[in-house]
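Lecture 7 notes: from sequence to structure.
We start with the chain below.
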Amino acid sequence: MFCASLADVFDNAVADAWRADLIDLIWNTPHLDWLLLTKRIGNAAPMISRALELAGRGVNTPWPWSNVWIGATIVNQEEADRDIPKLLAVPARIRFLSMEPLLGPVDITDFLTPGYPSCAGFVPSHRYEEGYCDTCAGHQNDPIHVAPLGKVDWVIVGGESGADARPMHPDWARDIRDQCEAAGTPFLFKQWGAWAPGENCSGPPTRTERVADWFGGEWSFYTLTPGAHDGLTYDDEPTVYRIGKKTAGRHLDGLMHNEFPAESL
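Predicted structure tokens for the same chain:
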């Protein structure tokens, strides 16, 4: 179950005592899998340690617990590079990404690979300068030569909804799907949000409609009236249409992706 879906357990404004109560509740409900999703993944490890201490659960019940999944919200490449290594450093049965709203193309390939970011082992190089590895060309003090951090076990992708929703390019979602497929990582496409490509539209608009086209690395917005659509088709990607979350649905290239980690099934 998602915990506090409209809040953040690891927000600095949340009192330590509240988290201690939550930890106690999690311990007393071992039949439930608790999904703790946060935008502040850097706070997770120290706050969990503090909550365990306050709840009196840190000695005889070592972390991680089998019914706790830890997730980080990632919306772009900058957040991926900054926060996914922090997520992988937090001990957890399952580590997952909520890439919602997805606001740009993101390469997470390395984080889906077991053992990231570990080199096979430092080998003094004869090809590079002294102190560099013959295996990976990294310096002997680089993080790549420390113990591996593990991998991301599950990826959720979705678009944005609401009054000021920003579009999600269909190729951004497809690329994450393909990265997950190549790595054997479960992929869940949660929703398009307010905007969707033509294949998700039911037909020509019967009322004025907002449209977004992707040109030169940014969205160009305009309004489309029913008459202005005459002779046009809905299949001219990357054009997306603001048709609303309910109408847009969850189909990506005609399919629904509902994969979960095998351990949860």
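Points to note: The CA atoms of residues 206 and 226 lie 6 Å apart. The two ends are 14 Å apart (CA to CA).
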